Amino acid sequence: MQLFRLSSERITCPLVPDVIGLGRKIGEKTGIISTRYGNRMLSLKSSMFLDEIVEDFFVEIVDYDPVKNILVFIGEQQPENALSLAIHWLILRVRNDTNVIVHLYGGNDVVNPLEKTKRILGTIKAENNMFKEGKEAMFLGKDFADVLKTVEGEM
């Protein structure tokens, strides 16, 4: 995947405190949180302990072109888990009822990225708000409280 930095400015999105708060409520789980921000997506730049999120750890995804496999972002640091961010971007584009994604990881399962994307999108199409496979789980919600309720129900 090619990454294109549109700007290296610090992320000042007003949703940053909400994402940090959600991470603290979820606790000592490893993952990425992404949220819709207008036509963009605010995300953690890589997987981390969610109760340790700080303001410097964010990127804004401006666009993703799945045909050319190019991810366009804003941020001081480059995203380290671009595949997950591309999947999150696609989910937010096809699911208008979803605004927040919590993606938890439990291992380093390396699989074919295209096959993984197909499985995730196939599972969460329509109204299913959760994907679980092995130690990996993805939770979707219309807002921060909604996704927290789903995460807590599965923990």
How would you sum up this structure in a few lines?
The protein is built from four helices and nine strands; from the N terminus they run E-H-E-E-E-E-E-H-E-H-E-E-H. It has 155 residues and is α+β, with helices and mostly antiparallel strands. It has one domain (2-154): Class II aldolase/adducin N-terminal domain (L-fuculose-1-phosphate Aldolase), CATH 3.40.225.
- Rg, alpha carbons: 14 Å
Assigned CATH superfamily: Class II aldolase/adducin N-terminal domain
Distance between the termini: 33 Å
Beta fraction:
25-35%
Tally of discrete structural domains: 1
User: Taking all residues together, what is the mean pLDDT?
Assistant: 89
CATH class: Alpha Beta
CATH topology: L-fuculose-1-phosphate Aldolase
Shape: globular
Largest sheet: 9 strands, mixed
N-to-C order of helices and strands: EHEEEEEHEHEEH
- The residue fraction in helices comes out at 25-40%
Query: What would you call the structural class?
Result: alpha+beta
Q: Total number of β-strand segments? A: 9
Instruction: Give me the number of helical elements.
Output: 4
Low-confidence stretches: none
CATH architectural group: 3-Layer(aba) Sandwich
